[in-house]
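Input sequence (58 aa), recorded before submission:
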Amino acid sequence: MNFTVVNKDISVGTVRIIGVASSSIFLIGDTNSITLSSVFDTPPESLIIGPFVPLAPQ
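Predicted structure, token format:
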């Protein structure tokens, strides 16, 4: 996917990050390229899939 953005003046005051996911990016400003990769080396028999646990509200 090619995605082009033209930013004009940018001003960032305060940033408050409550939490992040295992695959997340936080970017302010410009970049030429972002490379994404993923590795999953856990054997399937050790993966435990259970019910989702809701997060407590802040």
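Checked by second reader. The mean pLDDT is 75.
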